[in-house]
Write a structure and sequence with these properties.
This protein has a single domain, classed as 3-Layer(aba) Sandwich (Rossmann fold), CATH 3.40.50. Helices cover about 35% and strands about 25% of the residues. The chain has six helices and nine strands; from the N terminus they run βαβαβααββββααββ. Bound molecules: adenosine-5'-triphosphate and magnesium ion. Magnesium ion (MG) binds next to helix 2. The site of magnesium ion has 3 residues, from helix 2.
Amino acid sequence: MTRGSVETSLAELAARIRRRADGQSGRFVLGIAGPPGAGKSTLARGVRDELNIAAGYRIAEVAPMDGFHFTNAQLRALGQLAHKGEPDTFDAAGYVALLRTLRDAPLGEPVPWPTYSRELHEPVSGGAVFDRQTIVVTEGNYLLLDDPAHPDWSGVRALLDETWYLDVPRPIIEKRLVRRHMRGGRTLEAAKTKVIESDLLNARLVENTRPRADLTLRKSGRAYRID
Ligand SMILES: Nc1ncnc2c1ncn2[C@@H]1O[C@H](COP(=O)(O)OP(=O)(O)OP(=O)(O)O)[C@@H](O)[C@H]1O
Ligand SMILES: [Mg+2]
């Protein structure tokens, strides 16, 4: 542990959210932001599973920002397919609207939420459904973006009760992203090009949003460090 930071486990992080959620009426929304490949989706599922196991029922579900990717057909029509992953290749207004719906909907009323398939490389409508879950874990790159060039994203922050920024050193992110693009069918060269020309530019945009988070987390072995 370094001065000024504390180590915590996934279970403790989940317990923190449970305490905060129990202290308010209505749904509680945790937002996890961070650059591409930081491990946001993995962390979000981990927090959800810890919450559900500790509660003994399905108290939490994940609401991925990635479900609001425009479809490949839409991006092609917009001439944006090569830019997939950038802020304007998502339906940010739709994301904000559905987060608001989720906050306002009475418990028990089904609210379908789109997910994203890494096999199909397309959003899947109704991939998740909220009904009685009182804790929403939403995660994605641009949750904390506040940039006049992409104004719709600025509406997200007000709908989050707590936000975490998952920070990972650049070289680790680069390695993970190259590996993932290769698993998706790209050659090593093409994977590296995609990382340099697209992912890292998005990462820089996201890194600027870190000061807007309530907590910054860094993975430390099996634990997380809070700065
Ligand atoms: N704590 C971790 N330690 C090692 N590898 C990890 C960790 N968390 C995630 N990974 C790996 O890193 C890769 C990216 O993880 P994940 O998909 O959770 O990131 P992400 O932030 O959701 O990425 P994206 O922004 O592209 O959706 C995956 O291959 C995952 O297995
Ligand atoms: Mg993800």
